[in-house]
Amino acid sequence: EKTETSTEQETKTDREHERILNEIETTDTAFIGASLRAVYEGNDHAKFLDRLDCRIKQHDRDIERMCNFHYQGFIESITELINVRSDAERLKNQTVVINKELQESGKEVARKSDDLIQCQLQQRNVASAIEKLSMCLPVLQMYAKMCEQMKAGRYYSALKTLEQLERTHLPLIFQYRFCEIMSNNIPRIREEIKDISMKELKDFLESVRKNSDKIGMVAMKQVKLENKSATMKNANPFKVAELLAKDDKTALSGNSDQNPFTEQTSSQNPFETKEIETNPFALEKSDLSASDLVDFSPVYKCLHIFGLVGSQAQFETYYRTQRKNQARLVLEPPASMQDNPDAFAKYFYQIVGFFVVEDHVLHTAPNLISRQVLDDLWEMALSKLVAVLQTDSVYCSDAISMMKVKNLIVIFADTLKAYGFPVSRLFGLLMEMRDSYGEILLKHWSKKFMEIFDEDNYTAMLLDNEVEVKALLETFPYESPGFESEKYPRKLPFSRFVPRIFGEMKRFILSCLEYCEDLHLSSTEVDDMIRKSTNLLLTRTLASSLQTLVQKPSLGLTELVQIIVNTTHLENSCQHIEEFVHSITGVRVGSAHSAKLVGVSTFKDARNGTEEQVVYDTQYVNALVTITQGVINGQITKYGTTCGRASRYLLDLIAFLQHNFEVFTNLPSKVAQTACMSACRHISARLMELVLDKDIKVVTMAALQQFNLDVMQCELFSNSEPVPGFRDGALQMSFVELRQLLDLFLSWDWSSYLADYGSGNSKYLRVSPGTALTLLEKIKEERGHRNIFASLSKQEREKKKLLETVVRQLRGIVNG
Q1: Where is the Exocyst complex subunit EXOC6/Sec15 C-terminal domain (predicted)?
Q2: Alpha-carbon span 68 to 313, nearest angstrom
């Protein structure tokens, strides 16, 4: 096995050496390094050297064999070469002789040829110099022209000259040094022109920023004049100005006398905004435009210059970025805008001025900004503007300021709409502001209503002459059969606040209508807004004011009754309010989108509340409490004997009631009956409370007898039918419990009471054991304080024993 392995190893080595030798023979000597490295990496160097020597010897034998084969031909060639050498030497000598002869004969020709060549060279140099100078002179002239244009500030022309110089002329003479200097200066000149034009652009942007408010003022003024002209051509469908003028005329009618049914300031709409001398739109020059106030040439110059230098995209990006930053600054509201229409106006002017300039640039330099870029700027501005107005307009606490802001927003929106910007969100914002404006109106009219209520005397009006009658009918639609035939002074059922409240309701409607002007609303929408606002005025403001009025402790029954009469007439006048709304909107009640005014239900609720207040009049109740309070320190504790008639305090109380019930003749019968029943029940309850009062420890029989006379007086009052319409015995039932209690104690009929207790046929059915026990203990206490000698009487002892027995039985009933 070892022998076989050794043989295989030697065979492999021989093959490797053979391969290396083949590579050495076939490969260039510069690349045999790899083959030699393979030999040295092996372990059979000696064997490889032996094989190499064998290969060398083999090649030597091959060379020798080849040389022996070609030796005869080589000898023949050498012999022929020796024969040719003599002929070549002879040819050489002949050639030298001929050349010498030729040189001698051509010297003159060569000299003249050199002279000719020199002349031709000079001619070519002169022609070349002339040609080059003719090419250089235009370049120098153009460069000088460019320098003059730079000095004159004609940078665009200079840039065009520079471009022509660089592209057309300099390439023709690029080899000259001065051309190289010019070429090196061209980028510097371009940058200089860019810097100068950029400085002019910055000055333009600063000028635009400073003059934005002026541009906006002019633009809004022009739109306002156009709207005014359109309004004069197309009659206003709502006729607010005419209605206000008519209202002023009505308020001022009646010769020089002031209308007694209107306020002194009612001749003017309290929220009418008048144009004063400082009207920002009252400019003398009405034909100014944005280009008249701002020089746009720097923008066009920069646009063309940067376009020529290949930096138009850079310029567009810079311009848009700067204008966007300016837009953010313009959209930042001033610090104090609350109740400051001038601040709102300046804010709107700046925004309008900004977008008027951008619109002008869009139409005169369309490559600078696109419609999409401008629309994106407007969307950003609109979002910011709406947010600012939603915040700051809420802080307008004054209706006049709110109306001025509304008018500014309308003109602002119309102006931007004229320039092609969508403004629907602004009109939506105005509708939202309508709610805030309505709240301000409601607060103002709430104060007006309370002022009217405070100034009213709550007595029926008297008209002394025809002038007063005419003034009334102009302010309030009063209708009554036979009124015109009555003699003076004519008495009206209502007090002065009825026509005044009616007039304020109409003025409120006109104020709401004034806000709807220029909002581009249909008659149906205006009608809906007015009706909703009027319903809020009725249900919230007027109803709350009436509720506050009737709860005033200073009003007596007479005033409350007059308020009921007044609300009745106001309720009847609601149809005239409906007709007034229809006359200004043209929309009738009952149409698909028309809401009905709720004035009738409002005044009904107010009247019901007043009727309840009549029943539970605070002054009236306090009078009862104050008068009957005298019983505590009077009859029950002091009287030892009766005076033979009702107490003075009760006679005064009944006289007080009879006087007040006379006023009830103007009230509905149900209200009068309820008030009378309440009064009797209150007296009965108060008298019962006094008898059972824990602070009264002792009650004498004489006091009970006097108390019995007082209750009899109350029963006589209830039988006299102070208010007609009661069923028989209905009013007397208020004193039944007192009557049964007094009959029980004065007749001392305890056997019947105890025997019939719990039966429906008892004479003392309404006397509870607890009430009887309380009063009996007070009488028992009084008997215990009597003289000791009186107790020795047999009759007294029997009464005392009976009293103790009754008390014990009553306690058993109460505790059982």
Answers
A1: 426-778
A2: 87
Q: What is the distance between the terminal CA atoms of the chain, rounded to a whole angstrom?
A: 137
Phi/psi region, residue 428 (left: phi>0; alpha: psi -120 to 50; beta: rest), is alpha
Q: What angle do CA 114, 117, 122 make, to 5 degrees?
A: 130
- Among positive and negative, which fits the CA dihedral 400, 405, 411, 413? negative
Residue 462: enclosing H or E segment and its boundaries? strand 462-463
Q: From CA 756, how far away is CA 581, in angstroms rounded?
A: 71
Q: In angstroms, rounded to a whole number, what is the distance separating the alpha carbons of residues 516 and 434? A: 9
Q: How far apart are CA 731 and CA 681, in angstroms?
A: 9
Phi-psi category of residue 518: left, alpha or beta, with phi > 0 → left and psi -120 to 50 → alpha: left
Is residue 587 within 8 A of residue 527, CB to CB? The reply is: yes
Give pLDDT tens digits for 744-777. 888 888 888 888 888 878 888 888 888 888 888 8
The answer to whether residues 546 and 599 touch, using CB atoms and an 8 Å cutoff, is: no
Low-confidence ranges of the chain (pLDDT < 50): 235-239, 241-242, 244-245, 248-286, 592, 618-619, 621-640, 787-792
How far is 243 from 529, CA to CA, in rounded Å? 18
Q: In 696-753, at which residue ranges do the beta strands (DSSP E only) sit?
A: none
Distance CA 333, CA 350 (A): 10
Distance CA 633, CA 635 (A): 7
Exposure string of 170-203, with b = 16+ CB inside 10 Å and e = fewer, is beebeeeeebeebeeebeebbeebbebbbebbee
Task: Provide the 3-class DSSP secondary structure of residue 315.
Answer: helix
State the virtual CA torsion across 487, 493, 498, 499 in degrees, nearest 10.
-10
Query: Token pair of 125, please?
Result: 């140099």
The identity of residue 598, as a single letter, is V
pTM above 0.70, yes or no: no
β-pair partners for 490: 463
Using CB atoms within 10 Å of the CB of residue 519, give its burial: 0 to 12 exposed, 13 to 18 middle, 19+ buried. Answer: middle
